[in-house]
Amino acid sequence: MNDRRVAPWQRLGFGPKFMEAAARNAVASQDLWLCDPPQSSGLEIVAWIDTSCNDGVLAFILGSLGYSLPPPLDDRVAMGKRVVSGCLHYFYGPWRTHFLWPGRAGGYVDLDWRTSRLVLPWIEKYRLGLTLALSLEDWPSADRLIEWPGDDLRLDEGLDDLTPGDNAYQIWLAGRLRGDLNAMDEGKLLVRMNRRSHLKVLVIAAQALLRDDDAAFHQALSTGLIRHRGRTFKTSDIYSAVCIDGTVLWHLARRRSMRPIVLPPELEIFIARCIRRSVVEKPIADG
């Protein structure tokens, strides 16, 4: 169903009861993350940011799909800004200067800016934060997030059983975007990809983006979205309504002033973007 007069969630085939349940979850958890982060411990801060990412993104997606939520969740732009702010706090907040974290052998270990990169998970907050920052055209936040990935980071499966290749792709692309050719060389990337075809499509699209090849980029991005629709998207998974990597590349292309990317409605629907504006969200207090 590609009738634009029909709400996106209906066009994708989500059922009313499923959407009602998702909306109830978003409403039930809002008091846990629509607040400033705790100041007590690393564990509590990370738990707060996990909730902010998961449930804030849920509210953003529901709004993007045209599903009504009560205030303040109905302002998906503000919800998106809140998630981006939380992700920036996770990576760059002053709490990383020194905190305790559970050690592998029991007890706790002292971590700081450098050592926490080797221990803490990163890929979910990075991908979600970058997706929303770009969707909101918050270029400064996107640039700040892009500074984070490096080859020193721990291997992170995230919530989707991501592979070493998935990790390497994010590090490689971030390095190229910030002009750091040493972040991840393409030879190492190809080894870690291990013949995963979805990564090959992403790399082809990203390489076309970086050399401003409109035609090759459009073809590769379309192939990636078709694959997402056929293999990743499920009407039992609200988060799969957004193709994260496709959304990132689509907005990066817009930012680089490439030729407008016109996609058929059945593919365009998987690209998260914001049209209406909202008042700038109050930054999270770092004090």
Share of residues in strands:
under 5%
Strand order of the largest sheet: 1-2
Q: In which range does the helix fraction lie? A: 55-70%
* Net shape: globular
Helix/strand class: mainly alpha
Q: What ranges have pLDDT less than 50 throughout 5 or more consecutive residues?
A: 276-287
| Total helical elements | 13
- One letter per element, helices H and strands E, the order comes to HHHHEEHHHHHHHHH
Kindly, what is the distance between the CA atoms of the first and last residues, rounded to a whole number of angstroms? Answer: 49 Å
How is the main sheet built? Answer: 2 strands, antiparallel
**What would the average pLDDT be, to the nearest integer?**
89
The total beta strand count reads 2
Total number of distinct structural domains: 1
Roughly how many Å is the radius of gyration? 19 Å
Summarize the structure in words.
The protein is globular and about 55 Å long. It is built from 13 helices and two strands, in the order H-H-H-H-E-E-H-H-H-H-H-H-H-H-H. The longest helix has 23 residues, at 42-64. It has 287 residues and is mainly α. Strand 1 and strand 2 form a beta hairpin. The model is unreliable at 276-287 (pLDDT under 50). Helix 2 packs antiparallel against helix 3 (42-64) and helix 10 (197-210) packs antiparallel against helix 11 (214-232). The protein has a two-stranded antiparallel ribbon with strand order 1-2. It has one domain (8-268).
